[in-house]
Specification:
There is one protein chain. By secondary structure, this protein is an alpha/beta fold. The protein has eleven helices and nine strands. The protein has two domains: 15-134 and 287-302, Aspartate/ornithine carbamoyltransferase (Rossmann fold), CATH 3.40.50.1370; 136-282, 3-Layer(aba) Sandwich (Rossmann fold). The chain has helices at 15-32, 57-68, 89-97, 113-117, 136-150, 168-179, 208-214, 236-243, 247-251, 273-276, 283-302, and strands at 46-51, 72-77, 103-108, 124-130, 157-161, 183-187, 203-205, 217-220, 258-260. It has a five-stranded parallel sheet, sandwiched between helices. Strands 2-1-3-4 form a four-stranded parallel sheet.
Amino acid sequence: MLKSKHLIGLENFPTSDLNKIIDTSFKFKEILESPERKAILLKGKTIVNMFFEDSTRTKISFTLAEKRLGADSINFSSSTSSVKKGETLKDTIQNIDAMKIDGAVIRHGHPGSALKLTEYIDGSVINAGDGSHEHPTQAILDMVTLKEKFGKIKNLKVGIIGDILNSRVARSDIFALQKLGAEIVVCGPSTLLPSNAKQLGVNITHNIDEVLNWCDVVIGLRIQLERMHLGRIPSKREYHSEFGLTYERVSKLKKDVVIMHPGPMNRGVEIDSKVADSDNAVILDQVLNGVASRMSILYLLLGDKSEKL
């Protein structure tokens, strides 16, 4: 099993645990592609999915992973809970923990919320995204997708394009890629790059064509349209022109570049439909690998140590 009890972020997560999750994900991928599609390894375990922000892929992926493992899965919705009546997050969590749960998956708008949750429950906590801090399970499914595609991650050249400043996916991807020995370049307008980008140990450029000609893999990030009022980019049209993964750009490349995107995609803004739907794109592979990798995470955190997969 893992050295860690929780999965809060990848910055300080043991590399050995990260590799174990990735390797185990491929075993679950085989199970998902079998007629049975189940591995009843968490029977009797109860997991609560606590989503305080909207989610489609991540929430469905975790719920499906839990059901495939035979766990009892409960979906908590803040919009229909006592939080709406003024109950504090602490009281809500402690009431849930009193019902004897084994683990909790949390998505919350505030950085550090997943770590705070560990103070209030005895079970394992998995961070499904905390503000602009980290989204470790997305990064792990990205690593599984890369290893599946290339057979390795060490020395891969990876470009990350877009809103690095606000992206929890970018932060977790950077931490994971660094631990696994990849080279990383981030690219975007200066207003969407963090002031400490160099401290993160990545190279920086504002030239997307330079990145595309250099990299083996490009990860396009969602432009957070809900932040457009902050004026960090002049317009969607200008962003698309300067930093978009356009068909014109990609089709001119002299080598095949693998295209990734964590979703949801803004087609015609950060990526063209022709690129997203091309043979170079592994975006739907990422979705299936999301279920496999989350099964791996849940099994390694909550499974019986005496029961082998």
